Amino acid sequence: MASSVIVERNVEVPMRDATLTRANVFRSSGGGRVPTVLVRTPYSKDAVLGQTTTLDPFRAIDAGFAVVFQDVRGRFESDGELAIFEEATDGVDSIAWVAGQPWCDGNVGMTGSSYLGLVQWLAAAQRPPSLRTIVPINIGRPPYMHELCYASGGIFKLGYVLWLISQFFGPETARRRVSAGRADSDEIRRVLGASDHVEDLARWRPLPTLPLFLENPVAEWYEAAIRDDAASGDDPDALSEHFAKIDLPVLNVGGWYDYFLPGTLTNFTRMRENVGLEGADNEQRLLIGPWDHMLNSRSAEYDFGFAAGAAAMDFTGYQLAHFSHFLNADTKRQALLPRVRIFVMGENVWRDEEDWPLKRSRPEAWYLQRNWRLSTERPAADERPDHYLYDPAEPAPTLGGAVGLPGLVQGINVGPHDQRPLEARPDVLVYTSELLRRPFEVTGPLNCTLYAATSASDTDWIVRLCDVHPNGASRIVAEGTLRARHRNGAGRSSAVRPGGAERYEIAMAATSNVFLPGHRIRVDITSSSFPYLEPNPNTGHRLGEDGTDEIVPALQTIFHDPARPSQLLLPVVPR
């Protein structure tokens, strides 16, 4: 144990253009040079202690490390202007500064969640010589603007973006504008207060004319995000080029109810395939809990048990074991962590695995059937399609899942909420299996093949997998979304033919869930989730062009016949 700790506040960390950023340094009073963990944050270096996603600096010091918490450029105590998503150069400069300090032995690691994970990937792609490993938590893959603002399938995360700006990025920008005399003193209150009214803000059309941001210019990137509607989010060459630049071991951390889960899993699998890194396959690590974006394992409706919590599984100790292996000399190294550690929901246990996806899983098709059945039997020849009316003026509300919305920093609005209030709506179709007689494990990526038609030029499809408990609760396990015009991939938009049947491949992220005996498997299909997702106006126009008068309802048709067998492909683990 360290006899005492030295804390140096607001230490100046100069960037190459002479801009001064500032950091808090935690180190032992015992002297000597030790490996150091760097955390770069836009959310205030003075507010991170005690947060679930933050490395405990005092335990890190006891384990033989120093820790540096730094305000990124243009945030809180650091000078300059924030350039969101443009953190690569400052990351390299910050790592070099840390490595050159008399208390650092030249070996640097990084950790942090969400934007704090993004800055790690951007710095790592520059190959700074002193950076040895990173621990990005709950962050997606590049391109980051698109990943931040759009759900898989190209639907704008409207409510999430409005909440992110009004509660996290906007208030500090407003404070700086007020301090510089560029805004009146109430701007901070107006922006921060808007986080309590996200649903009202999300109803405004057209999107770029939202008065909050026109009158309080605290997020210039909001309009850029809307223009990013057609940007490519699935360019395999760009992804390969990005990961080929990174030659580090990475501990990827995510949650089954985190909206960045697909990117977290992609980051892990692509780094394992990284031919530019010797031993890449062996050095990459993955940890997935039953967590939301803030590593909560409890929602307003459900608790996965004490062991599920980040504190109970000792997330700080888990990170320190990783840093010990990759930052220390051979004589001080701890053993490698398990390659993959996942929390298996339903049974509510942690389990170590050798790969992801699991090689022993087997794809099994579950088909939509007449009479609202879900079965492994292929549909009969006389199956008739099902219909519902989707009205963008009366969208189905968001109810749990992997979302980001206000509410005790997301906690009460995220996770395995009971979907029965939504399933009672006429614009939600529900297909349910027979009662299960034995445990049925689903672990791995989920996909839905949906054969559908719409009366509109464009629309959205939302598919949910639910675990129906014996008491009737229909708890969401995973969700997939797709904007119809993006059915051929982001960047290759094409209008749909009104009334024409189309095949839609809908990625549903991934899960690990055991459907227990006495439970049922359920699939819900709808076209909206408001305010988290922007309700598709069904016009086929580019995002942000439509006003409230332009939106049109759409008659939706779901097919499940032998020629068009709509199905959910589940990765089943034999038992």
Explain this structure to me?
With about 575 residues, the protein is of the alpha+beta class. Among the domains are: about 5-135 and about 300-355, 3-Layer(aba) Sandwich (Rossmann fold), CATH 3.40.50; about 360-575, Galactose-binding domain-like (Jelly Rolls, Sandwich), CATH 2.60.120. The protein has 14 helices and 22 strands. It has helices spanning about 55-60, 90-100, 115-125, 145-150, 160-180, 185-195, 200, 210-215, 220-225, 235-245, 260-270, 280-285, 315-325, 420-425; strands spanning about 5-15, 20-30, 35-40, 65-70, 105-115, 130-135, 250-255, 285-290, 340-345, 350-355, 360-370, 375, 385-390, 430, 440-455, 460-470, 475-485, 500-515, 520-525, 555-560, 565, 565-575. Strands 11, 12, 13, 15, 18, 20, 21 and 22 form an 8-stranded antiparallel beta sheet that branches. It has a 6-stranded mixed beta sheet with strand order 1-2-4-3-5-6, sandwiched between helices. It has a 4-stranded mixed beta sheet with strand order 7-8-9-10, covered by helices on one side. Helix 2 crosses helix 3 (about 115-125) and helix 5 (about 160-180) runs antiparallel to helix 6. The protein is globular, with a radius of gyration of 24 Å. The mean pLDDT is about 95.
